[in-house]
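call fold(seq) -> tokens
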Amino acid sequence: MIGGGVIGLIVIGLLVFLGIRAFGGDDEPTTQPTTTEQPTGQPTGEPTGNPTTSTSGGPGQNGELGNATGQAKTATDKLQGLGFGCSDLFNTGQGAHRGCFKTDGRKGAEAIFQFQSDGTIIAVRLQAEDDDNFNNAQVAFDQLLQALGNDTFGADQVKKVQDAVKTGQRSDEVGTTWGEFQLSNQGQSVRLSGHKSGEDSLDLPDQSFDTTQAQLVTALKAKGYVCTTSCKKDVGKYGYQRVFFYASSGKGIKDIEISASGEAGDAKKALPAALGDAFGALKGGNVEAVKAYVEAHNDGKPYSAYVGGWKVEISGNSSASYTSQQVSIEYESFYA
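ret:
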């Protein structure tokens, strides 16, 4: 969820190059999904008892945490102590991919890291953003860096990164005894990614729904949606419910966003209807686990977690005259 302008352009360019057909366009919501924390006092997405590895040995099904020891456990404990909600994309005997997310309105942060079975962290991506005050983004980033880095990289190596951030360079390579980092200061965000010297990042499991783009369009048209650059249905005086997705030609869908906007009463009714229409058409890809997670977190607050091999984000905004709510289900991409 950060340094999005440049990264978004790169991703879109890559999708076009690979021949991926996208549903989207000028009618895209003005408020995009953001990486989110589990709100204070709300379910964190992990079990209340001792964490366990998913019984399938693959991606967590319900936003839960698997086992962790050593550096990974220390980092997780510190991040949770700072109010981050953490979950695993996968956690097996060979290693794990974990994300810890936090947001507060127009600012947010995330720590994504991979670790071996003994807890040794081998790859990281840290991001923090604040649309209103970049200094606050730097403070949040420094909290992330120390929570994960002091025990993983060493305090002296953390200082090298801190010094690089203070220079204000928009992009910089930072060499440490742990490994090489790429630092980016873009817009109102700070981002750091890198992997441990001599170690490669873990491969992410392929993830897609069985439903193709053509099949989803057919199903939504039957529900009264108009499908051009996205599938939309008017709601109330000026609102709409919308389904936007990416899929390779003839392949299963890999990214989907379901949203509703308009007057508060209309939007609150429209989002469950749009979710029902979309989930009713989606097959495979652990869709039932994702559906269950979304239904369990429908209180209008922001959430983010790895669920059934997907990154699921729930977000929105409200004012006296307008409400917008989104649920984003994305295939995770990780570069370190």
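The longest strand covers residues 121-130.
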